[in-house]
Design goal:
This protein is of the alpha/beta class. The protein contains six helices and nine strands.
């Protein structure tokens, strides 16, 4: 019984330390309501670096608070998302290649148009202009630094 009570008391702590994520379909209405810079995180489910990175980023409470209060975060699974996505006035679809594939939007956001490097981070100001782009792992320290720089724009 004590274990259950302890678990129930800790559940809100875990919930509060998570980064709030949105979708591309929500972004347009959110930006009209309250304009904020946007952080897009492209990843895949097979990317080990992506999983390690997400774990480290979500453990940094200051980073989570900064992201949740001042930015819109979109986690985008580039090779599994099959929905048609409307972003910046264009429509993007999933490109199937047999049993696998990739989303057109992942290719559009990537500098490498043949195959994006994962994880991939795209930082945009509140007008959705590209501010910063990074291929590869992002540390909590570097993420906080970039968020502070973007907040100052």
């Amino acid at each position: 019984m004590k274990k259950i009570a302890l678990f129930l008391m800790l559940v809100p702590c875990f919930y509060l330390s998570q980064m709030k994520t949105g979708t591309f379909s929500e972004l347009e209405s959110l930006q009209k309501e309250s304009p904020r810079p946007v952080v897009i995180h492209l990843y895949t489910n097979w990317c080990t670096v992506c999983k390690i990175e997400s774990f480290h980023l979500s453990k940094d409470k200051d980073l989570v608070k900064m992201m949740n209060e001042n930015f819109y975060l979109i986690n985008f699974e580039a090779e599994k998302t099959r929905d048609k996505i409307r972003f910046q006035g264009q429509e993007f679809e999933y490109l199937s290649n047999g049993s696998s594939g990739i989303h057109e939007l992942a290719l559009a956001l990537s500098k490498n148009k043949n195959q994006p490097v994962y994880p991939l981070w795209v930082f945009m100001d509140k007008h959705q202009n590209l501010v910063y782009y990074q291929e590869g792992q992002m540390t909590p320290e570097k993420m906080k630094q970039k968020l502070l720089e973007i907040s100052a724009l």
